[in-house]
Amino acid sequence: MRAHAPAAFESLHELLVAYEADLPAELRHGSVPETEALAAEYADTDAAFMALHGGEPIGCVAIKRLDEERAVILRLFVTPQHRGVGAARRLMLAAIEFAKENRYRRIVLDTHKGQLPAAYALYRALGFLDCRPYGSISYACPTFMELVLEA
Fold it and tell me: Which of 32, 66, 93, 113 maximizes the CB count within 10 A of its CB?
C-alpha cells in the first residue's frame, strides 16, 4: 500500500527506525526523517510503500525522483520476523510499477552485496544489473545497480 495518510507516515517512520537499527553499523544513514518530513518527501513524483500482514506494517520501500529519466530505490526493509514470505519482492514490484507509471526510464539503487546478500539476490532476480555509480554514497564499497525500464 502506498503511504498517504498521516497514520501511514507514522508507521513508515517506525519502520525506518527499525531499518536503521537493523543495518550493519557501517551502512547506517545516521538519522530518520520525522513523520511530517516523510509525508512531504514522498508525494507527487516520489512515493513510499508499506507491506502489511494482518493489517500491521511489516516492511517498506521508497522511490524518489533523481531527474526526468531516473528514480532511485531507497530503504527497502522487512521486519526480521516477516522475512522470507515475499514482502520485499512485493514492495519492489510496487516501486517498479510506480516508476513505470511515472515514465521513468531507469531505476537505480545502491546496496552492499557482501553485507546484504539477500537484498542483492532479490535485485538481481528482478532484473537489476550492476552499474556505474549514480551519485556519492556515505559508506564504503557500495554496489550500484540499475533496472532499465525503457530502451
Answer: 32
DSSP structure string for 61-120? EEEEE-SSSEEEEEEEEE-GGGTTSSHHHHHHHHHHHHHHHTT-SEEEEEE-TTT-HHHH
Q: List the chain domain ranges.
A: 6-148
d(CA 54, CA 75): 22
**pLDDT the model gives residue 84:** 92
Which grid coordinates belong to 40? 512531504
Q: In what order do the strands lie in the sheet with 47-53?
A: 47-53, 56-65, 70-78, 106-111, 143-148, 129-130
CA distance 142 to 125: 19
Q: pTM for this one?
A: 0.92
Residues of the chain with pLDDT > 90, as a percent, come to 77
- Tell me the CATH number for domain 6-148: 3.40.630.30
